[in-house]
Design goal:
Strand content of chain A: under 5%
Order of helices and strands of chain A: HHHHEEHHHHHHHHHHH
Distance between the termini of chain A: 43 Å
Number of strands of chain A: 2
Chains: A mainly alpha (314), B mainly alpha (353), C alpha+beta (362)
Order of helices and strands of chain C: EEEHEEHEHHHEHEHEEHHEEEEEEEEEE
Largest sheet of chain A: 2 strands, antiparallel
Strand order of the largest sheet of chain C: 6-7-8-3-9-10
Strand content of chain C: 35-45%
Largest sheet of chain C: 6 strands, mixed
Structural class of chain C: alpha+beta
Shape of chain A: globular
Structural class of chain A: mainly alpha
Oligomer: heterotrimer
Largest interface: A-B, 104 and 107 residues
Number of strands of chain C: 20
Radius of gyration of chain C: 25 Å
């Protein structure tokens, strides 16, 4: 009886059956909201194809073409790749001084620092989580509590002694220092998340493997790890997003050679207003966004499962 | 479980084996003390570090030989956390009882004077309290906005529909942006002369619009930016809760003719309650340390200074180390009280439910 | 009038046809079991009746009203889910009361009705507990209580007993049957357990691969299976199915040949119309008489495996032609492995299926 379908249902808003299924109508609605939400990012990407004069023009030029005359001429701009080529070729000015290193170096620093520290945290944290989960220690709860508390501290409270410590030891401005620091900040979350994953696993399989003669080492790598891939992926994404974009510690603790992209960007805009090269900055941010975006996109399914597993216990 | 709780047996004091942790501690202490006395800080730090590493190695070998795997697995994490979190925390606790400025050599024990100064001094205290109030205001506004927006976004994506995956990643993107880019580009959008906001308002009023020229506008601008960036985080947590509700419960509700509101309160909400609490906790802690966006958007102007930004300023730019340490401990105290309050409420809720 | 009728109902998931042209009629007060192996479409059929699954084509009529386009809320039905689907955050009492809120009853009325069903199902003591705090059997009873607390058009049960252990299952079968008998509503029960179906149902619909193979009373589906599948699916131990060659038919007796074995079997006249060709002979394991001497009406086989089942003994025997035959004999009949048996099938419990699998009956 197609006649009893409401207008909304024909548009794709199905409600009769299939409780969590929705049709193209939902896609349309969610698409609109998502686009509005994404708009500021989209504008950054658009700006990255504009020259400085176009970036500052009034009225703002939104469109790369006139779409066959649909869009008035004064709202369109001519897309250029100049910003992207100059990201890596031109020396940046910061507060008037000419930098010797360009953004290629900062990109390298960001990739290096973020990936090493996140992987390190994942490695150490997963081991520790397994330890907490399988070998209950005397005072286990105390250790766990301390670890969780360090997660809850605003990082800012340890900033003073860390600055002092780094100054004293000469770690200030080195890769090792900032990597160790980021590792430490990713650890509590990693341990906490991975522990709840290991807790959920059935012990029977592990016991069976041990009876079959597998070493503890093999049990961990061959039996347990493959079952917590979702957790590893989710933890990795969260850690990466936070570390990749971390600004305050990087600002205070990295040197000219180890400066990360966010810090370099903040220094590139020191003047503010018209002095900022908006197109160039947008190109940098767009490039900077791509790696995390891709990682998140490909691990997206794990992300949701990971959050659910790690936190909801029933 | 193959490994059992094994108390390390006591090795005799002076047998020089690799797992003799008593000897390691003893010799480590001696060498460390001597080096602190004899060498400058920059060198003695590394010597102390080496001694700590030696003791740790002795423990690790001892644990390995005794199949004490639990401790072995946990120790690297504990070590990193100790060096980078707990040790600095203790250090700054110590510093807060001294008068010390990092650009000067003198150091003097002053007891609680720093705390008295930052909390009650006629000159300092009002500023600190104002910054603390500002921080509280930002926490309330940003967290509320994030919870509401994040929740609504999660509801939007709770159902399965075509292209959902691709739209979801669009909404998640702001979270992946670096805070610098978000701050800088929002200042671009808010700019009175060439910013978008001003442009659109001018279309209606014909006048330039300066968002950031008063406190309300500046706060609104900051809160909007922060909420935009971090609502996706809340969304992700809530969404995880929503998709974890078994489908058959909704089917049963349909059969039982349960109304929409009752279905939400008695089926859906119990599944997302703990995740909502978690989101609230995380975002509150993060909002508490809000400094970067303010540095980028207002530089603390128009009375938008927060306690975190203030702390960075006096500790790093003005080198008032001890005073900063005292402030950070006041902050820590507040955060611990807050989180315990949260946990208390969360636990009580789950118990009564 | 509480009846359920489905007409030519088909469900497709993409290219896969889960249910094809299903026709069923359940009368008021009748209990119909949908029985079949897993994946046969029985649960899909039930969910289409409930409105949880849209039908691709056909009609679903409940209480004389076409329900095709109505959501589950509007169908006025009660259902017990396989995993019970108890609301985990609500107490047992609140769970049972859930379907009553729609009717906007007063709190006292709701309480009275909850108490009433709680008494019927012995749940009075656990009303304040959460579903997580009660036993599996109690959960199951809560699910049933939630279904019968109001007065719906019909009842649907999806594998209601599959999660209970053997003993509980036995007692719950009786309880549910008793409860249903007092309600006189059209009821559909989905199950894969034939014992459950045979004991609880007024009629059984046997499904395979999306098709309803046979609908009949428990007695009919056992005694007169419509085809090879139903014959083999109903009854334990499984019916013996022997591929045979029909050589000739004269005066009510068919001459059959399989392997090196010849068998003369009294059958109905319809078999005679088949003519010479391949047939399948189905003989229940309990339909054999072990006789002393080989005759034209016996099968000769050697005992290979002996399984005592308590009151009876199950013997796996092999004919010279290599056919495996299952025979059930009384406990006191001693058989040794390797012993040669002469088995005479009871013609009344023997079925001949034509080459298309359909039973040949007069």
């Amino acid at each position: 009886m197609a006649s009893s379908n409401t207008f909304m249902e024909r548009l794709g808003f199905r409600k009769a059956s299939g409780v969590s299924e929705a049709g193209w109508g939902q896609t349309l609605f969610a698409g609109l909201i998502s686009l509005i939400y994404f708009l500021p990012v989209l504008l950054i990407i658009i700006t990255s194809f504009k020259l400085q004069t176009e970036a500052l023009s009034i009225p703002p030029k939104f469109f790369p073409t006139t779409f066959f005359g649909l869009i008035p001429e004064n709202l369109t701009f001519t897309p250029t790749l100049e910003n992207y080529t100059s990201v890596f070729s031109r020396a940046m000015t910061s507060g008037g001084a000419v930098e010797s290193t360009g953004f290629d170096r900062y990109f390298f620093n960001s990739i290096m620092i973020a990936s090493v520290s996140v992987f390190l945290a994942l490695f150490i944290g997963t081991l520790a989580a397994f330890g907490f989960s399988r070998y209950p220690l005397k005072g286990n709860d105390t250790y766990l509590f301390i670890i969780l508390t360090t997660r809850m501290l605003p990082a800012i409270v340890v900033i003073i002694p860390i600055i002092l410590m780094f100054r004293v030891t000469g770690l200030s401005g080195s890769y090792i220092g900032i990597i160790m620091l980021y590792t430490a900040f990713n650890l509590p979350f990693t341990i906490w998340m991975m522990k709840s994953f290991f807790d959920e696993l059935s012990l029977d399989v592990e016991d069976a493997a041990r009876i079959d003669g597998s070493s503890d080492f093999k049990v961990f790598f061959k039996i347990c790890l493959p079952q917590v891939i979702a957790g590893l992926a989710a933890t990795f994404v969260f850690g990466l997003i936070l570390t990749w974009n971390e600004f305050l510690f990087a600002l205070l603790l990295t040197g000219i050679d180890t400066r990360t992209v966010p810090v370099a960007m903040s220094q590139a805009v020191a003047g503010g207003g018209i002095g900022v090269l908006w197109g160039l900055l947008a190109a940098i941010e767009t490039l900077f966004l791509i790696p995390v975006f891709l990682v998140t996109f490909f691990l997206q399914d794990h992300l949701l499962r990971g959050v659910t597993f790690g936190t909801v216990k029933r | 479980m193959t490994s059992t709780l094994s108390v390390p047996t006591n090795p005799s004091w002076f047998t020089p084996t690799a797992d003799n942790w008593k000897l390691a501690i003893f010799s480590g202490l001696v060498v460390a003390t001597l080096s602190i006395i004899a060498f400058p800080a920059s060198l003695s730090f590394w010597i102390v570090g080496a001694m700590v590493a030696m003791v740790a190695a002795a423990f690790v070998i001892n644990a390995y030989r005794k199949h004490y795997y639990g401790g072995l697995l946990v120790s690297p994490a504990i070590a990193v956390l100790f060096v980078m979190n707990i040790f600095p925390l203790l250090w700054s606790l110590g510093l807060s009882f001294f008068a010390y400025q990092s650009n000067q050599q003198t150091i003097r024990f002053v007891g609680l004077a720093n705390y008295v100064k930052v909390l009650t001094n006629d000159l300092k205290a009002p500023e600190n309290w104002a910054n603390l109030t500002n921080t509280a205001m930002f926490v309330v506004f940003t967290v509320t906005a994030q919870m509401i927006i994040g929740f609504l976004l999660a509801l939007l994506f709770a159902k399965q529909f075509p292209l959902r995956k691709y739209l979801l990643i669009l909404v998640l993107t702001p979270m992946m942006l670096s805070v610098v880019a978000a701050g800088v580009f929002y200042s671009y959008y808010y700019d009175p002369t060439f910013g978008l906001l001003s442009y659109f308002i001018r279309l209606f009023t014909g006048q330039q619009f300066i968002l950031m020229d008063n406190k309300a506008g500046a706060v609104a601008g900051i809160v909007f930016t922060d909420a935009w960036m971090w609502s996706p985080f809340v969304m992700l947590l809530v969404l995880a809760g929503l998709v974890s509700v078994p489908k058959y419960l909704y089917e049963a509700a349909a059969i039982d003719r349960v109304s929409g509101w009752r279905r939400f309160t008695s089926i859906t909400f119990p599944y997302i309650r703990s995740l909502l609490m978690l989101a609230l906790l995380f975002r509150t802690i993060e909002a508490f340390k809000m400094a970067d966006l303010i540095i980028l958007l207002t530089k603390g102007g128009n009375d938008t200074m927060t306690i975190s930004y203030h702390l960075i300023r006096i500790a790093n730019e003005q080198n008032k180390t001890s005073e900063g340490a005292a402030i950070s401990y006041v902050m820590l105290f507040i955060v611990i009280v807050l989180t315990n309050l949260y946990l208390y409420i969360a636990n009580r809720r789950t118990e009564t439910a | 009038m509480s009846t359920i009728e489905i007409q030519k109902v088909t469900k497709r998931f993409g290219d896969f046809v889960a249910v094809r042209d299903a026709d069923l009629l359940v009368n008021a007060g009748e209990v119909l079991c949908l029985l079949g192996p897993s994946g046969c479409g029985k649960t899909t059929t039930l969910r289409m009746i409930a409105g949880l699954e849209r039908i691709t084509s056909g009609n679903v009529i409940i209480g004389g009203q076409n329900m095709n386009e109505l959501s589950p809320e509007k169908r006025d039905i009660a259902m017990v889910f396989q995993f019970y689907a108890l609301y985990p955050a609500l107490s047992v009492g609140e769970n049972i009361a859930m379907p009553l809120h729609f009717e906007k009853l007063g709190a006292a009325e709701v309480q009275a009705r909850v108490n009433k069903v709680a008494d019927i199902l012995h749940l009075r003591d656990v009303l304040d507990r959460l579903p997580g705090q009660v036993s599996e059997g109690e959960k199951q009873r809560v699910a049933v209580a939630r279904a019968i607390v109001r007065d719906p058009n019909c009842f649907l049960f999806d594998e209601p007993l599959s999660r209970l252990d053997v003993e509980l299952r036995h007692s719950m079968r009786g309880q549910i049957k008793q409860v249903l008998a007092n309600l006189s509503k059209a009821t559909v029960i989905v199950t894969h357990d034939q014992l459950e179906a045979l004991t609880m149902a007024d009629r059984i619909a046997i499904m395979r691969d999306g098709l309803i193979e046979q609908v009949g009373t428990p007695h009919d589906v056992f005694a007169k299976p419509a085809n090879v599948f139903v014959g083999s699916f109903i009854g334990t131990p499984q019916m013996n199915l022997v591929e045979a060659e029909l050589k000739s038919f004269a005066s009510g007796k068919a001459d059959l040949e399989f392997g090196d074995e010849k068998l003369t079997l009294a059958t109905n006249a319809a078999v005679g119309k088949l003519g010479v060709g391949k047939v399948t002979v189905g003989i229940r394991p309990r339909a054999f008489a072990a006789v002393a001497k080989a005759t034209k009406e016996t099968i000769t086989a050697q005992a290979e495996l002996i399984e005592p089942m308590g009151a009876e003994t199950l013997i796996h025997a092999r004919t010279r032609g290599g056919n495996d035959i299952r025979v059930v004999v009384p406990r006191d009949k001693r058989v040794k492995i390797g012993e040669t048996l002469h088995l005479q099938p009871d013609p009344a419990q023997t079925h001949v299926f034509a080459s298309d699998g359909k039973a040949v009956r007069a």
